Amino acid sequence: MTLIAAPSRTASGESGFGARNALILLVLMWASQLLGLVGLLSGNIQADIAIHFHTARISWFTLVTALVGTFVTPFVVKAAAMYGKKRVMVVITVLGLVGDVIAALATNYSMLLIGRGIAGCYGPIAALACSMVRDVFPRRLVGPASGLLGGGVGLVALGGPFLSAWLVDGFGFRGALWFMAAASAIGLAALVLLVPESPVREERTRIDWLGGLLLGGGLTAVIYGIGEGAGWGWASARTLLFIGGGLAAVAGFAFVESRVPHPMFPLPLLKRRSVWTMLLTTSLVGGAAYAVGTVMFLLALMPTIPGVSDGLGFSATKNALVNAPSSVLVLLGAIAAGMAARRIDPWLLLAFGGLLVAGGYGAISVHHHTVPQLMLLGAGTAVGMGLVVATVPILVIQAVHPAEQALANGAQSMAQGATQTILSQLAFIILARDSQIIHGIRFYRDEGYSNGLLFTAGVAATGAALVLILRNSRRARRV
Fold first, then answer.
1. Cβ atoms < 10 Å from Cβ of 206
2. CA atoms 162, 166, 172, 177: torsion sign
3. Alpha-carbon distances of 131 from 88, 187, 253, rounded to whole Å
4. pLDDT band at 449 (very low <50, low <70, confident <90, very high)
């Protein structure tokens, strides 16, 4: 792999971040954290959408976006390495904007899913934003900038719920969908005007279309098969075809990548212990930490109907107020992790964060019926979430050489995205086991919420345990 680099325009003669570097970081943070904000908005409006469109398949509202994002990630990462990260970020932001507009204009559930599917092309933006940090910032600012970029989720957690509540309670789910489109448009303009192109290039070669199709298509088939398995039957031919065929495609990807001259994800990179352990542990802990939100949003926002639905019946505004202390703690946890990572092994921070997430949601699986219970038990979970989101980008950076940053970020984003999507879908399946459909709307009972929360907590605990078992005991390289 040949890389072509030029001196960063942001690196000259600045002793600190400076106004220009600060603006660039702000735009990259907007681009990457918009995914979290959209996820927050989607969680808040999914109950209203299920009721408005009379659909029992509300899980596909978020799942279709994740499926498309998983499929396109290897192609986006490869194109960014060859043609420039900024250029590719602009292209996928345009596609995201088109999908947002289609979804906002949707007159039926199918059209809504088509729009959200097209918007899924925006999914790899976070991986590109993280790798841009290393390309355009002076070396001394890469670590702080990466920590701030990851910790930006705290800002989303702090202000996002109130913004979401204002949109949903004031303008309904349409208002939230139009806000997504407006936010994408602002991000597009800021990218074009303020962010320099990455000077790092990989030699232009033939794209490994077969490898990309096998990897993206295989993971997509597995996720789709899991999503439909409960309805088709887990032993049905269709379920086995999608899941088995998807796994065979992923195995075929490994075979193809070992033989093509220009692989999509070089196997020697993925076989490196520092890389595969990082991918496995961060995807499990991070995927579980984010996936649990699907259960929590439905628990808070679905109505309370005796004998039918055991949701808490909160408005979006009340839900934001209940979660406000946790939002502050996510931000504080992320800041603390960024500071502590200079002296404490980031692997230990990730493990501790995963254990806090697991313990918090394990307790909430039993005690989630009152506001004090949610606020008190959510506090520890929020600190854990902050530790997780801030340490993941640092672990990615320390796992690879600078020239491999884009590939590593793409692989981590894809692994965590696929894991999160699978876990979210499994949580929906667990929820649906204790539910009933009335007038086309699926309502969930308390046992389903408890089991869904306990499942994701168990995965987070498993990920934390693997962190402690697999971590490299040598002192982490300073980034």
1. 8
2. negative
3. 13, 18, 24
4. very high
Question: CB burial class (10 A; 0-12, 13-18, 19+) of residue 332?
Answer: middle
Q: How many CA atoms lie within 13 A of 147 on its CB side?
A: 20
Tell me which residue has tokens 């309370």: 304
128, 112 contact by CB (below 8 A): no
C-beta separation of 97 from 144 below 8 A: no
What is the mean predicted confidence (pLDDT) over 263-271?
Answer: 80
Q: What was the pLDDT predicted at 67?
A: 81
Extract the tokens encoding 438. Answer: 């009335």
Residue with tokens 């701030």: 148
List, in order, residues 6 or more apart from 238 with CB less than 8 Å away: 225, 228, 232
HEC profile of the chain: CCEECCCCCCCCCCCCCHHHHHHHHHHHHHHHHHHHHHHHHHHHHHHHHHHHCCCCCCHHHHHHHHHHHHHHHHHHHHHHHHHCHHHHHHHHHHHHHHHHHHHHHCCCHHHHHHHHHHHHHHCCHHHHHHHHHHHHCCHHHHHHHHHHHHHCHHHHHHHHHHHHHHHHHHHHHHHHHHHHHHHHHHHHHHHHHHCCCCCCEECCCCCCHHHHHHHHHHHHHHHHHHHHHHHHCCCCHHHHHHHHHHHHHHHHHHHHHCCCCCCCCCHHHHHCHHHHHHHHHHHHHHHHHHHHHHHHHHHHHCCEECCCEECCCCCHHHHHHHHHHHHHHHHHHHHHHHHHCCCCCHHHHHHHHHHHHHHHHHHHCCCCCCHHHHHHHHHHHHHHHHHHHHHHHHHHHHHCCHHHHHHHHHHHHHHHHHHHHHHHHHHHHHHHCCEEEECCEEEECHHHHHHHHHHHHHHHHHHHHHHHHHCCCCCCCCC
Closest CA to 347 of 394, 415, 401: 394
The model's pTM: 0.76
Token pair for 478: 């300073």
Among 334-338, 380-384, 451-455, the range scoring the smallest mean pLDDT is 334-338
Q: What is the pLDDT of residues 300-322, one digit of tens each?
A: 988 899 988 999 999 888 888 89
CB 254 within 8 Å of CB 214: no
Q: Are 227 and 421 in contact (CB under 8 A)?
A: no
Q: Provide CB contacts within 8 A for 469, sequence distance 6+.
A: none
Residue position matching structure tokens 């979970």 = 381
